[in-house]
Amino acid sequence: MLQYVTTNPGKLREARSYLGEATIDDYDYDYPEIQAPTLEPIAAAGARDAYREVGEPVIVDDAGLFIDAFDGFPGPYSSFVEHTIGVDRVWELAEPLADRGAAFRCVLAYCDGEPVDDPADDGDLPVRCFTGVVDGEIVAPRGSGGFGYDPIFEHDGATFAELSSEEKNEVSHRGRALESFAAWYSDR
Ligand code: ITT
Ligand code: NA
């Protein structure tokens, strides 16, 4: 069974809803996060660390909210910002902006310890990354579903907090990353 390594129950709920209960297990481990301006190296380093900890195939899910007018901030710092100033104050910072465009990004990093045939391989544990992106707008908080920044992220007229997990997965960054992971995983 695949171990979905996260401390975030919202991520796990969406992954289970997409991949099915039988595909993934919950592995609650807070892998150390490196700092980087993009999500891919953070997820990849996390997947290597998680694989060393778990010893079974793992998926690590690194995600963030990238606000256009803030040059992508909070981006890789989304967790820190949520736990310091909080989602309502991110809305207050965005409210005066003329352009409130933003994107959610999600990178799923998979590691099973198997070597891959890659001449550029540096000898470290190989990791495969699957990315999903969705565009939207920062709005005043609405809705009580989802988690994290969902109440202030609107896409196609609804905030992600107004959608069920299934509805969110159909359009979300995580749903798209899960889709490309599932396609690769099923015919690998
Ligand atoms: P991990 O244990 O998986 O690392 P985490 O919550 O710390 O859990 P991240 O490091 O990826 O996750 O931080 C991402 C931040 O963005 C965090 O504040 C989440 O609440 C938020 N976030 C991630 N995906 C989201 C989504 O689909 N909708 C709303 N907020 C999201
Ligand atoms: Na984290």
Automatic annotation (TrEMBL):
The keyword Flavoprotein does not apply. Keywords: Hydrolase. The keyword Transport does not apply. It holds the Pfam family Ham1p_like. GO terms for cellular component: cytoplasm. Transmembrane segments: none annotated. Gene3D superfamilies: 3.90.950.10. GO terms for molecular function: nucleoside triphosphate diphosphatase activity. Belongs to the HAM1 NTPase family. PANTHER family: INOSINE TRIPHOSPHATE PYROPHOSPHATASE (PTHR11067:SF9), INOSINE TRIPHOSPHATE PYROPHOSPHATASE/HAM1 PROTEIN (PTHR11067). This is RdgB/HAM1 family non-canonical purine NTP pyrophosphatase. It comes from Halonotius roseus. The gene is rdgB.
